Amino acid sequence: MRTNDDEIANFCCRLGLTLLESGAEINRVETTVEFIGHKAGLADLQCYAELGVIFVYYERGIKNQIMKIKGHDFNFQKVDEINNLSRQFVENKITYSYLQREYYRIRSKVIDFTLRKKIFAAGLVSVAPLLLFHTNWLNLFFSFFVGILGYLATMVMTGRTKTPYLNVAVGGFVIGLLAMTINLLVSGTNDDMIIFSSLMPIVPGIALTNSFREIMAKNILSGLILGMDATMVAISISGGVIIGKLVVKMLIGGI
Hints:
Layout: H1 5-21, H2 26-40, E1 46-49, E2 53-58, E3 63-68, H3 76-90, H4 96-108, H5 115-131, H6 137-160, H7 166-185, H8 191-198, H9 205-216, H10 220-254
């Protein structure tokens, strides 16, 4: 029994939606959706995607499938697993029904690390940049813990507020406050170095990288949106750091 054309287009649209929500670049999303649609029987299926919406069009019956993206995150493990599935389907290694079952399994699967692993990774990332500058052990030691606390503050605020960029601003504030305090209390430390290194877990590195990739692939709109978002995150972090340092200076001046 042949699968209904509308059902194929709807499935392709949902698969592309998951790729976009997981942080896949636009070109990858459009190519994957079209390959699957063509292989499933819709030879004229075309896909157009942006960060906020995905369109799937095919002439047979003149149908359009449109889905709006409600959230956006970076989960490259999902992107990789869906890509592998699509390649296997195009190469006739799996059936269409198996592709559907596996896709829905991947979409519903929560791919994440434990809080303990996240905290430890944040500490390591916070230490790594200072190794390039051959700094002293005090800066390395404090950067490890300041980076963890800044990352935890960002995570807590992410779950408690829907205000854009406030979470990273609070993370920057905590890092600036702690680094400045440590510099005043512990001789031999450098607050600028601690701040520079401790910010690494919350800087928008992936978004900035994807922005350049999208622009190089001539997906200008998506690239500019990602670049603007990364810029706003960077400005929020910087503002939080500045406020944190000013608070310490004000307290010192009042003593």
